[in-house]
Each structure stands twice: as structure tokens, then as C-alpha cells.
Design brief:
seven-stranded parallel sheet; magnesium (chains A, B); three-stranded antiparallel sheet; transferase (chains A, B); LPPG:FO 2-phospho-L-lactate transferase activity (chains A, B); homodimer; CofD (chains A, B); Rossmann fold; FbiA/CofD (chains A, B); alpha/beta; 39% helix; globular
Chain lengths: 319, 319
């Protein structure tokens, strides 16, 4: 079975670990969000790609969900001693090495997709990880500051400001000019199943879908497309997806996110058991829906979630 | 008093520490060798400038004479895990931060001299440190390999090959096109005293003098020019200066190095007491010479050496 997963960072990566356990023989291609990418200290940092790579490759810091296990922080200390910022983004020494290798390869002319493949040769994530695009896309968030309304980089909004100020708009700058990376459209065309893990529907999956050609390829794919709600009850499972949904005028509920993706995109939707009451409404909109536990509390729970997605896909296919 | 010192790495840096102690009120300008600079992992590394900066700024690893005290090695470990080399150059995490800041500033358009000034704002070395040139100069060494005679980067010869193969030539690539960095010629013109510390006469001081205009400025300066022999007995005090001298056909002796610089450049020369017998020969060539202890065994010895250089300058001036 060929599965394509559109993935953000922590949530997507954890879900993928469950999916690998639930479908050990599947050929999994991950289309990774690069809208969170940021240049720091002259280095190209790809937080979502790295979180997937480290998580599936066994190098992740399990407690925090991002960054490296056994990390040290000498470089960051020294940069601070030089007075060089920003100081709000957590780059450890081991992580720095990844960005140094990536930046060097990009400087030598390799596209991000080739660089990602090279980095994965070490990590052996057990999936094919492709960035959504080799072109630069940078998610900006419109906020009110003392100097008026300003667009700030997503990481500045998310990490420095902790999404504590209202977001008036979310703009994937450059997305309209970006092309899907080599392999993205082919993987979608060849897929039996496309999964939207419980990643942020706006700044993770939404950004991937904003690259011209990808939304159309998902909608037009022969594959069954199944999504898992990132909203449980009236709050995001983790992160601050509610802030991002508010910015695009979508209610923070499992049913509203399903409606946001729409029946044109989704062939099936999983909501948490606490949201069982919304199953009927989602199905009424033309999207088959089931209520199952959607909290990735441990690997067993995550594997069960992935299995529920595979089961729903099977049911939809047999229709 | 205004003193200009032409300095390489470890030897130059240690001498400078003694000089600061011997002449606490002097205004010291250091013209640093950049021929040893190397691009590693996409980063610009300036070993000699950094050794001077760290040594005078209190950040040096005292035992090894280069690199940072309290260093960690995570980045290097990770680069090795990615299979990205070279692995023979010792870059610690703290050191990496310096190269990251430097590379970022150079990428932003600042010349190396401005970057060095910015880095020194943190380290407060107590001297004005100027690279010999803002232009790229790279010392290459001609050696015999299995694939025939090849030019290798100085660091590859020095660090990877430990100068264990004969050097047939030493070429400061790019020197003929380089211009002295802003402030270099002005400092030499305004100096009361120019010192050649016991740095490598070929790949450190020789490279600095190879930048068009610098040799002429030293020779034409109103300042007294005093050198300290890096050769004690028939061997370099440290490093492998003998290999480099052989490559340019100069005998490994204090007197031969004095003759190599020549009376046109030197107004005075210090040899070690074990070389007292060569004082007469050096003086016969027109260079006032004294024999004093030249081993930088500790700070007191180094300060005494610097004081001896100041004394000789005074004698020459009055002479």
C-alpha cells in the first residue's frame, strides 16, 4: 500500500510513528511543511522536516517533541555572548550541525529536496520525506504591535510571542510562486491513501495545500483521503491551532475543521470520542466520519489512531 | 607609544600577552595573518585572528594554545555522523559560534576587518586587531602525493599532514591581488615601533608581508623595526617553521631568518642566549642584535622578552 502523509512538525511526526507501526509494510511518503522554515544566524532551519526526521530516526528529544536528545547548548550561549540574536529560538549544538550541513549543501546548489534526502540517509526515518517545495515559502502572521499592524515570521509569532496576541491573517508568502518539489505530485498520483494527520490545519497542512498543484493533486487523486481532527472538544490537542483557525475565521471544533477542508478534499474524517455528537453533522456534509480516541498519549494510542484511519479508508473504499 | 605587531597564531598571541604586560600604556595595533583562513562547512574560519582574540580576551584553551576554554564538541560529532568532513580540523562548539557570526556578517556584506572589530567588542583584547587584508588570501603548500605534485591548503598540510611531508613551495594564493585592510598602512605609518614576534617567518609574517604595500610600509616606516627569532638553536620554538623555511630555501637558524628578513626591513634582532654566537654575524649584516632568553615558558618570561625588544628598540633609536 502506498500512503502519502501531509505533515507538520510534532503532531505529524508522532502520528507517523504510529502509522509506521500500524502499517509496517506500507510505502510511506511524507510531504513536509516548509512554511515554518527560517533563516537564523545565516543558516537555513527547517523545523518541521527536522522534527519528522529526528522523531522517526530516533534522535528526537522525546519530552519536548522537537530538537535533539542529549543536546548541548554551547553555540547558543556563545551567540548570546556576542550579542547576536534572536535568543528566543532554541537551537542546540547537535541541531546546529544539521543546519550547517543543510546550508552548506544549499550553498553548493542542491535543492532542499536533495538536501533532505541526504540528511535522511543518516537518519533512516523509514519513510520518504519530501519538502512540499524546493522554493522558499515563509508563513507570516499579521498582528497588531505598538508600531501598528505588522507581518511577523510564523516562528516569531509562535515561539517568541507564544501566539498570545490575536492573529489577523496568516499568509504563506511565496506559496503562489512555489512549485511542488520533485516527487510530490507523483507520490500523490500513485497513492492508495492520503492522510492528514492531526497537524495544524492552517499553518501546517494549509500551507502545504497552498502550493499550487498540491491541493488539486490531493482532490483529484485516486487515493482515499482521510483526515484526523487536531481539535478535541473545543481546543487543539497541542499547540495553538485555535489561534490560527480564528485568524482564518474557522471555529475551533472538529466539525468546523472538516468543513474547512471540505468534501472536495476529504473522503473521511476522524473525530475524538468526546466529539461523537458532531459525526452526524460531518456526514451530512458528505464526509464519512467516525469517532475514535484521538489523543496521542503513547505509541499504542497513536498506533490505534493510525489503524482507525486505515480502517475508515478501507470502509470508504468498499463504500 | 604606538606599537604595531605583525602576528601569526599561537606564538604571536602569547608574545602579545607579554607585550601588553611590558608596555601597559602603549597603543598596540596587531596586523593579523589571514593566509591560514579556511572555509569549513560553509563557514569562514580565521584561526590566527581567533587565537589572538581568544588569547588576549581570556577565552583561549591555555594548554593547547588554540581554541576555546571549556569547549564542547557536539557539532563536530554530528557532522561526523552525517559523514560530512573534514574531520581533521578541530572546531569546537564555542568556536563554531564565532565562525557562524563571522560568516553571517560577511554574508551581510561586512568586510573581514569590520567583522573582526565587531567580534573584538566582545573579547576586548586590549589591542586593535586588524586582518592584514579584507581580500581572500589562502596559503597553499606544494607537496608530493600519490597523484603527483599537488598544492594543498596550508591547514591541510599543517593539521592533517602535520607537516610530515616535504614542502616544495609555499604560495600565498591571492596575495598579489590583495589590498591591505583599512588601517594597516596608517598604523604602520604612525608607529613608533614595529615588532615581528617569534611567529612563523614564512606562513605568518611572510604572508602578511606578501600583501602589496605592507612590506614597503614596514621598510619605509619611521618606526624602529625589531624582530624576535622563532628559531632557538637549530629548531623552531614551537610549530614546524623549519619545514616552511626549508621550502623557501632558508636555513633553520636565528641568523638565517634575520638575513631572510634583511637589513632593509629589520632595525634590530633578538636571538636566544643559546644562539649568542650568531650575534656578531647578524650585526655584521647591518642588523643590531642581542641575545636574550627567547622561550615563552610563562608570562614572566614572555614579558621579559617583550621588554628586551623594547630595550633594543630604545638602543637602536638612540644609537
Amino acid at each position: 500500500m502506498r500512503i502519502v502523509v501531509l505533515a507538520g512538525g510534532i503532531g505529524g511526526a508522532r502520528f507517523l510513528r504510529g502509522l509506521k507501526a500500524a502499517a509496517p509494510d506500507a510505502e510511506i511518503t511524507v510531504i513536509g511543511n516548509t512554511g515554518d522554515d527560517i533563516h537564523l544566524f545565516g543558516l537555513k532551519v527547517c523545523p518541521d522536516l527536522d522534527t519528522v526526521m529526528y522523531t522517526l530516526g530516533g534522535g528526537i528529544n522525546e519530552e519536548q517533541g522537537w530538537g535533539r536528545a542529549g543536546e548541548t547548548w554551547s553555540v547558543k550561549e556563545e551567540l548570546a555572548a556576542y550579542g547576536v540574536g534572536p535568543d528566543w529560538f532554541g537551537l542546540g549544538d547537535r541541531d546546529f550541525a544539521t543546519h550547517i550541513v543543510r546550508t552548506q549543501m544549499i550553498g553548493a546548489g542542491y535543492p532542499l529536496s536533495a538536501v533532505t534526502e541526504a540528511l535522511c540517509r543518516r537518519w533512516q526515518p523509514g519513510v520518504r520525506l519530501i519538502p512540499m517545495s524546493d522554493d522558499r515559502v515563509e508563513t507570516h502572521v499579521l498582528i497588531d504591535t505598538d508600531e501598528g499592524r505588522r507581518a511577523v515570521h510564523f516562528q516569531e509569532y509562535w515561539v517568541r510571542l507564544r501566539a498570545e496576541v490575536p492573529a489577523h491573517a496568516v499568509v504563506p508568502v511565496g506559496a503562489d510562486q512555489a512549485k511542488p518539489a520533485p516527487g510530490v505530485l507523483e507520490a500523490l498520483a500513485d497513492a492508495d491513501l492520503v492522510l492528514f494527520p492531526p497537524s495544524n490545519p492552517v499553518v501546517s497542512i494549509g500551507t502545504i495545500l497552498a502550493v499550487p498543484g498540491i491541493r488539486e493533486a490531493v482532490a483529484g487523486a485516486e487515493a482515499v483521503v482521510i483526515g484526523l481532527s487536531p481539535i478535541v472538544g473545543d481546543a487543539p490537542v497541542r499547540g495553538m491551532a485555535d489561534k490560527m483557525l480564528a485568524a482564518i475565521g474557522v471555529e475551533t471544533s472538529a466539525a468546523a475543521v472538516a468543513a474547512h477542508y471540505g468534501a472536495g478534499l476529504l473522503d473521511g474524517w476522524l473525530v475524538d470520542t468526546v466529539d461523537a455528537a458532531s459525526v452526524a453533522a460531518v456526514e451530512a456534509s458528505g464526509i464519512p466520519c467516525r469517532a475514535v480516541p484521538l489523543l496521542m498519549t503513547d505509541e499504542a494510542a497513536t498506533t490505534a489512531m493510525a489503524r482507525a484511519a486505515l480502517d475508515l479508508a478501507e470502509a470508504v473504499r468498499e463504500g
